[in-house]
Amino acid sequence: MCGIVGYVGSNDIKNFLLEGLKELEYRGYDSAGMAILQDDSLKICKAVGKLENLQKKCQDIKVDGFGVGIAHTRWATHGKPTELNAHPHFGEFSYVVHNGIIENYKELKESLDAKFVSQTDTEVIVHLFEKNIEELKDPLKAFKATIDALKGAYAILLITKAAPDKIFFAKEGSPLIVGRNGDEIYFASSDAPLIGYAKEVHYLEDGEWGVVQRGEVQLFSHDQKIEPEFKPLTINKELAQKGGYRFFMEKEIYEQSDVITETMMGRITENGVDFEEIDEEYLKGITSIKICACGTSYHAGLSGAYLIEKLARVPVTCEIASEFRYKDPVLHKDTLFIVISQSGETADTLEALKMAKNAGLKTLAICNVDNSSIVRLADRTILTRAGIEKGVASTKAFTTQVMVLWMFALYLAQSAKTLDESQHKKELEAIMHTPHALKVDENMHERLKRLSKRYLHGHGFFFIGRDIFFPLALEGALKLKEISYLHAEGYPAGEMKHGPIALADPELFTIALMPKNLLYDKIKSNVEELSARDSTICAISSLEFDLADDFVRIHEWDHFMLEYYEMAVVLQLLAMEIAIRLGNDVDMPRNLAKSVTVE
Fold it and tell me: What pLDDT does 598 receive?
């Protein structure tokens, strides 16, 4: 979720690169850098932290006349946020910026006789290019050989003294746009930096690559030369940042299908799950797991507890961090202590982690922000790679946290051999199908928009589910509370008859999560009890439910977690559409902050 820009032309290169990065800073603010090449003269500048640090550092750089430039604002995936790890990365005569993840960077790195100065996967690109150019003597052929060797996702811009008037580019699984205005050529990873500069743009497709120079774009699709399809650029900057969506929350809901792929990348193999961040030796002697988190992360942790116990047969407890801090907990050194936080700065979770460290427990953080306080303190970290989440109500952070926990559960199961071969294969196949389950169905979204007008009044909502769908019900209720300001509660469906069903009447809305693959008959019976008391029922399932006042049909999946993920999208969209109808600011709900860094 980093941001890149590039430019070929004679106008103020430095200004365009800095302005472009400013438009993309929401995509990453761990570090930033730029490289400008004019003939054999190179100017390179990097800085850690927010963009203003780079602006101050490069204020004395003067650039006049024709040149090429590339720049990058980073969201760390491999390596800490340091100047050495900041882009552009360089070899002896070439410089590269890159978004995405190179899955096979370790194998490529071992094959190269080059001096690596960073911890990143990106640096392998520039050293591989320079090796290829020595052998092939042609920059374009060398670049093609380089991208052919890469596995993973990437948007790449590369400049080299071997062709000082050109920028080489490639796209696979990460966004990249090329724009032009007369002889000037521009690149960016979204529309926003190009507005006011480029008059027309070509949105690169996966497998497209090529080279640009003054006024000329050579474009290839795999091995075939093609003509770019330039279209006028007419949208405004705010709309461009949101990718055409009404709210950042909506954009982030739609992003989940792509983001989850980044979470999985390099960790899912044909044989199972592999985490380079942890090792089996570290986990030896662990007999139980305690998960600790707040809010949405707590709901992800509860989901993870179900998954770990189901797959790995390890006992798990899940604690709310703000309560855990003060309960004088009993902690055993054979317990793995897992903390979950989107920001890595959640105050209660951080204090809980300190308690576990002081008690001598092994600790693991599941986090979205590298080099955050929680990441620095924990023994091991698995990054969720969700990218910047601007909407206060968490969406993609939640689904990526659950994915990490699902993969971790399977990782433990592999080690403990608690699954037979067919069960293991089924879990692996389901994980790999998750991007499909998270892809927003436009027809369903339209249905939820229409449905939302029925749920603007009443005296509250019950979100109900069983097993792992109970924490999903909690999360659905929280989403609605956060942005609509309507009262909602998540309950285990089987608990309705133990008190809450007393509230049932036509003005109580029940959102029922009814997965085909997990306890369907049980929850069907629970919902029938609510319907008999005249509660208004909105059922979410792949199986028709005659007693539902409203029915939201999901796809028929063969694994309950795929149902879980599609239902998560439904709950997010329904909450958002209700809040929009009520006229609320979906991205910045009242009284809430994105990261709770105080007690």
Answer: 47
Widest CA span of the chain, in angstroms?
80
Domain count, the chain: 3
2 is catalytic: yes
Domain ends where: 221, 241, 261?
A: 241
Where residue 142 sits, what CATH number does that domain have? 3.60.20.10
**Active-site choice (2, 45, 318, 538):** 2
261-306 tens-digit pLDDT? 999 988 998 889 999 889 888 999 999 999 999 999 999 999 999 9
| Residue (of 231, 143, 164) closest to 194 by Cα position | 231
- Which one from 57, 151, 439, 594 is the annotated catalytic residue? 594
Q: Of 381, 409, 434, which closes a domain?
A: 434
pLDDT value at 76 more than 70: no
What is the chain's alpha carbon radius of gyration, rounded to the nearest angstrom? 25
Q: Is 357 a catalytic residue?
A: no
Position 239 scores a pLDDT of: 66
Q: Which residues have CB under 8 Å from 28's CB, separation 6+? A: 1, 2, 3, 73, 74, 75, 387, 388
- Are 211 and 161 found together in one domain? yes
| Domain housing 356 | 245-434
Distance of CA 126 to the CA centre of its chain: 26
What CATH number is given to the structural domain containing 346?
3.40.50.10490
Residues 38 and 167 in one domain: yes
CB crowding 323-356: b at 16 or more within 10 Å, else e: ebbeeebeeeeebbbbbbbbbbbbbbbbbbbebb
- Distance separating alpha carbons of residues 576 and 584, to the nearest angstrom: 9
Residues 199 and 271 in one domain: no
Residues 386 and 491 reside in one and the same domain: no
Phi first, then psi: give them for residue 517, nearest 5 degrees.
-95, 5
